[in-house]
Amino acid sequence: MDNKKINRGQIKAIRGSVVDAFFPQFLPKINYQLKSGDAIIEVTLHLDATTVRGIALTPTQGLKRGDEIIDTGYPLRVPVGRGLLGRMFNVFGEPIDGGDVLTLEKSVPIYQKSRGTGDGSLFLFTFSLYAIPAKTGIHLFFPSKYYSLFTNN
Fold first, then answer.
1. CATH number of the domain at 7-75, please?
2. What pLDDT digit, counting tens, does each position of 53-80 carry?
3. Phi, psi (5° rounding) for residue 83?
4. Rounded Cα gap, residues 146 and 53, in angstroms
5. Is residue 147 classed as helix, strand or coil in its secondary structure?
6. What pTM, to 2 d.p., does this model score?
7. What letter would DSSP give residue 53?
8. SS3 of residue 57 by DSSP
9. Fewer C-beta within 10 Å: the chain N or C terminus?
10. CA distance 21 to 54
11. Which of 143, 106, 146, 145 is nearest to 127 (CA)?
12. Strands 77-79 and 107-109: what pairing?
């Protein structure tokens, strides 16, 4: 967190990947990222004036009640740029293709303001894609469209 006091809390409960945390100073914002040890947790709900509930995006093994948890002060972010082309990454921007670690300077939050509805709703910065190999080529299925590559159809 740049030039701000670090917001530190304490884990109150862990149930599988659901983590409740107590923050005496102020609550982290919804969709913001928390860290406790190696665990990364995304805030999903404000339970009361001092408690948040989050979903662990990494294993919670080793976490226990009373452990310190830190509000990073920003939402989950993904890298963007030309260096991503032809590469595979997890949601944290870490390479999973065996290639070099990415050194891009720009990253954006995974939740963005909608760009056309005008209602300010959020959308997730990903999309669903289903690829099915076929004798006539590769068929791609998006939620609302169908594309067929390498075919005459």
1. 2.40.10.170
2. 999 999 999 999 999 999 999 998 888 8
3. -65, -10
4. 38
5. strand
6. 0.68
7. E
8. coil
9. C
10. 8
11. 143
12. antiparallel
